[in-house]
Amino acid sequence: MISPSGYPAQIGQILDHKNEQVRFARPGENVQVTLIHITEEGMINKGDVISCREKVTPTTQIFEAEMDVMELL
């Protein structure tokens, strides 16, 4: 599933940094993913997340943060 839009998608193939097809990727690896069932431009946006349909990644509109300014220019 593509979050937060909710569009269903399926991974067709995963390509590693050498453009070779691999069966899986580990966290931190740079890969290219081909998605099946994504038919229109705009269905995926920058910052979207691919997640499992059964365990959708939670999203929020508002968050609270505490920041410390370490150095001023």
Which shape, going by the Cα principal axes? extended
**Which class do the helix and strand fractions yield?**
mainly beta
What is the helix tally? 0
How are helices and strands ordered from N to C? EEEEE
* Amount of helix: under 10%
Largest sheet: 3 strands, antiparallel
Strand order of the largest sheet: 3-2-4
Overall mean pLDDT stands at 85
> What separation lies between the terminal Cα atoms?
43 Å
Question: Mind telling me the C-alpha Rg?
Answer: 17 Å
Low-confidence stretches: none
Task: List strands and helices in order, with pairings.
Blueprint: E1 2-3, E2 10-15, E3 21-22, E4 32-36, E5 49-50
Antiparallel strand pairs: 1-5, 2-3, 2-4
Describe the structure using short key phrases.
single chain, 73 residues, mainly beta, 3-stranded antiparallel beta sheet, two-stranded antiparallel sheet
Describe the protein's architecture and organization:
The protein has strands at 2-3, 10-15, 21-22, 32-36, 49-50. It is mainly β and 73 residues long. It has one domain (1-73). A 3-stranded antiparallel sheet has the order 3-2-4, with no helix packed on it. Strands 1-5 form a two-stranded antiparallel sheet. It is extended.
What is the gist of this entry?
By secondary structure, the chain is mostly beta strands. The chain contains no helices and 5 strands.
